[in-house]
Write a structure and sequence with these properties.
The structure is a homohexamer. The first copy, chain A, is of the alpha+beta class. Chain A is about 30% helix and about 30% strand.
Amino acid sequence: MAPEELTHLDRHGHVHMVDVTGKPVTRRRARASCRVLMARSTVLGLASRNVGGGDVLEMARIAGIQAAKRTSQLIPLCHPLLLGDVQVRFSVGADHVGVEAEVESVDRTGVEMEALMAAAVAALSVYEACKSLDRSMSVEELCVWEKSGGRSGTWQRTDDGGVVNLRP
Amino acid sequence: MAPEELTHLDRHGHVHMVDVTGKPVTRRRARASCRVLMARSTVLGLASRNVGGGDVLEMARIAGIQAAKRTSQLIPLCHPLLLGDVQVRFSVGADHVGVEAEVESVDRTGVEMEALMAAAVAALSVYEACKSLDRSMSVEELCVWEKSGGRSGTWQRTDDGGVVNLRP
Amino acid sequence: MAPEELTHLDRHGHVHMVDVTGKPVTRRRARASCRVLMARSTVLGLASRNVGGGDVLEMARIAGIQAAKRTSQLIPLCHPLLLGDVQVRFSVGADHVGVEAEVESVDRTGVEMEALMAAAVAALSVYEACKSLDRSMSVEELCVWEKSGGRSGTWQRTDDGGVVNLRP
Amino acid sequence: MAPEELTHLDRHGHVHMVDVTGKPVTRRRARASCRVLMARSTVLGLASRNVGGGDVLEMARIAGIQAAKRTSQLIPLCHPLLLGDVQVRFSVGADHVGVEAEVESVDRTGVEMEALMAAAVAALSVYEACKSLDRSMSVEELCVWEKSGGRSGTWQRTDDGGVVNLRP
Amino acid sequence: MAPEELTHLDRHGHVHMVDVTGKPVTRRRARASCRVLMARSTVLGLASRNVGGGDVLEMARIAGIQAAKRTSQLIPLCHPLLLGDVQVRFSVGADHVGVEAEVESVDRTGVEMEALMAAAVAALSVYEACKSLDRSMSVEELCVWEKSGGRSGTWQRTDDGGVVNLRP
Amino acid sequence: MAPEELTHLDRHGHVHMVDVTGKPVTRRRARASCRVLMARSTVLGLASRNVGGGDVLEMARIAGIQAAKRTSQLIPLCHPLLLGDVQVRFSVGADHVGVEAEVESVDRTGVEMEALMAAAVAALSVYEACKSLDRSMSVEELCVWEKSGGRSGTWQRTDDGGVVNLRP
């Protein structure tokens, strides 16, 4: 199928879940990321508390993992999935904290929403921990970078916002 | 209090909830927003299905409202709150869908995380509905624009990322 | 206010929560009920297992109480409430099990949806326990019988489906 | 097995989950419905707001879909299931709104409770949106109309409340 | 694999879920238990209310079953599982109530955490029901007694706290 | 009221929530604890991974805090509460990890169940992280050590399992 239709609208224009009961069970993986922009002093504040800074990121990691598991309760048309693996990783830049989430499942539908949800909630948990320090923060570039498994094959996002199909 | 400390770290550097039991109950409001960047053809696809496009946004509105109510289950150190009002609004641009969320409560702590969560989950619901059409989408500029009530008074974000205090 | 407007639609026709932050905190109560119609043999099967029949109703009671507490997560525009009391009672008739739920709260908005949700989920729990015995069951007359507290005063439903205002 | 035993009671009369670990994974489907009886003026009020009326039903559709996914958290002895498809449809009559829910899964146990839960919560969401207009509403005839898959084969409810087996 | 590594820490020492997507789906079972120590008069109070005492235990049984289904939402690194069977049993001693929980699943990972969670929440539900009678209660010896299925084979706990491997 | 009745049973012996709508809103606090007994080598394994060991405890801390907020969804007759503060602390002994949880709220009912739930789920999260190392672990002495606020005044548990009233 070419990706050209809003699959969530039936022929009357109403939203509905996409029926996945006829799809094969395959291994699926997705990787998403975002960045929490913040003042340099906020990054320093976060980083200078060695353990503490670590603690904030550990808290955010747990929040992201737990959110991935609840995606189908938050996004109305997502199917419940049995996530087999969720990883949340952080990188600390001069003016931001980077968040990357990777999710794997053996199921009938893809896991990109789970990866996006993990990244978003981890980012908001960092935001929450730093909001007494910095009111200028924002979350940017929340998007999917890679997806594999299922009918749409493997594809990757490129730095210019394009998409490259790696396997059919 | 000047906003200069990571309030979620105790003196051992461990995360903990901020004790709000001594704070007064006041009316609190926050407004947050973000944008879902998408291809122009995706915006047209969404918009051309008159009812359908409406339906996707209605679905996303409900998702955002429900997510606001679940913020304390998603963000580990957020306090449970009795939200008195949640509004989620959309605007459709040439290359994006804008999401704005406004939350009010009469409680002991602020509602900016609830507004951010409503905006984020509404945006991801739009993303999910359009992802069969467009793999290049991203969520951008998820941030708080206005907050009132509580010790920190009323402040607004300015277009250059600064913050203006309106009332002490 | 005369009960003449769909309070959940804003002036653009979109759904939104009703802002209750300006309402006074008062004691509120509501009573709802329904009946699970079933074959006489099903009622006998349920009743003949003395302890067991009791157990099915105890299970359904707990399910109803727990569902009342989750109403705002299930009904999109319901406000989260701090329920102070939930009662679920059963009566067994020749061809049905009757369910009555009563909910009390001290809050800014009414609790009729919580009472309806408790009755509905308790009824469906009875249905679930008996469905291997009887495929003809149905839930009937799920409605509110009495409400007190708040701007609309105290009113009662009458047997002919009308409504009597008891206190302004 | 003839449907003649309360499968949820063990030999001591205590409730317990039915062990489904030995059952085969098959495709299962169920369809349930109910009606929200309301004053004719309420139906007109709902219908006359063209977009708005649509919005109320869209909101209720989302609520029903989300509730189907949460059935095992609400009905104590229901098994968690990976729902592959949930559809919620509405019809508007002179004195009622009809709700029909259809659920599909590939799993070890049936989905009639999920279909009933979707219909019930969608109906209560309509009720909630109209309750400022009409205190006389009630939900009626909440029941299963069709079930297929699993040991009990395919059966349909008939208009007189009987049941017809279509396939063994 | 010898059980000698903290499988939840990656090579950087951060917590992460264990990837189970490569594991085979097998039948898995676990049995856990604990005891609620209480004053003899509390046991008598619980027992003397024939129905009531039964009701408290029925309530606790339902609470334990429901908690087992929510384990992955409570324990951060637990995988979501499709539980096929949950049993919660009680025994009443002179100075305690014993709780035993048994869980079965056909899945890629074990169910001992689900059995522990069922036992713990059932015990705390008994505690809660009796706490107006007795402030001295405690929950003791919450542990796993038997596990089967999966790579670690079948093992049993012995009364002296050791472990016996029954099948490789 | 002397603490001498099972407050959760009505006069028919059925469980029900205790009506708290007539109680005054006061500041309430409770402290509970437990210990996870484990092999000395498990404690060493946990401790020797400096960051890692910290991470496991941070994960367990977050799990405990989140569980405290969900107590009313897990314990059937607990009232929903707006927790104002939750602290989870750990101590590491030669053969155990100690867990202490402290909860504060300004509400109509006490928070000892919330403190117990935080301690229990934090302990089970430690258990889960170490279970690949050690099958002999158990959770012991899960109990309340101190409670203040509300009709029953302030009391403390003593080391011999007794209770001392500190303030009426």
